[in-house]
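protein under study:
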Amino acid sequence: MPNELSRWLGGDAAIERRQDRELAAVEHTADIAEARVAGINRATKRAMYETMLTNMLRARAEQIAPDGAELYAMIAVAGAVESTKVINDINRRSCRR
């Protein structure tokens, strides 16, 4: 019992060091998670931007050569799907670490 009281009053430096290490580990884990989220969001924003540009180009191509409209749409969809796969891969790789 007397040892318990001294620990609660800060008498045991080893416990304090362990708690400091545990807190630092939690903060480090949170920092890594925030960096992963930021990276995925950047990649997602860029993919959305590129998909919008692709669709604008598709619409223009349909005006110039309407007979290729179906092909243009398929190409645009394939590009958007591949961008989504890349973002998924980024997410999976970052979660494994």
Summary: The mean pLDDT is 86.
